[in-house]
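Q: I'm writing up a methods section and want to include an example of the input and output format. Could you take the sequence below and give the corresponding predicted structure tokens, formatted cleanly so I can copy it straight into the document?
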Amino acid sequence: MILYEYPLNERIRTLLRLEELFGRFAFFVGQDQPLDHHAALITLFEIADIAGRSDLKADLIKELDRQRQTLQTYRGNPDIATDALEAFIDEVERALSALNQIPGKPGQHLNENEWLSSIRSRSVIPGGTCRFDLPSYYAWRHNVAEQRRQDIDKWVAPLVPLRDAITIVLGLAREAGHASKAMAQQGSYQQMLTGRVYQLMQVRVATDLRVIPEASANKYMLWVRFTTQDGDLKPRPVDSDVPFLLTLCNL
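A: Here is the clean output for your methods example:
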């Protein structure tokens, strides 16, 4: 099945985008070719653009602290595995400590590096990082792969606590949801939320159905509409019934 995820508020939308970017970054930095490491660096700039929002770090600290307090209430519960609980509390506390040690805004260190700033400013121009625009960057790309990787690892290191915090928060949200079977009649599904507030919607649909869910929600109702793609890949509405799994997640 294919899993589609839809954020139901701005905070989760930001975290999902950063999760996607960190995953892309990890892929490219793990490769050896200069173009792969160029893609990793450009992705790092995208991460910094989002991470530098003034309220992101504070929101993550607040959420992790709230989760730590909730987890601590389970201590002594005979139905909870003590070792696993304590290990997870330790993980949350390490993530909290690391976030608090980030000086200023996440990604600020990239702006303070004059050489990286020159690459960043040129990268928004189509073809702006050509060899004649940035000869020093062109020379850097001719370093051996391990040297380039060491440099990139150094530049991403101050953002790693952010990545770890995002992994914990999104993991907790996903684990809080329970999948249920649903049917989109003639490609459309609606569900009343009866006052419940959710942060993330997951839709799982069989790959062989070749349909694409489009979802939206407000505080009263959620909608899922299915489309398919024709020869020129333009989406068009599905007029048949579509079975799927629906998960609503909330921290």
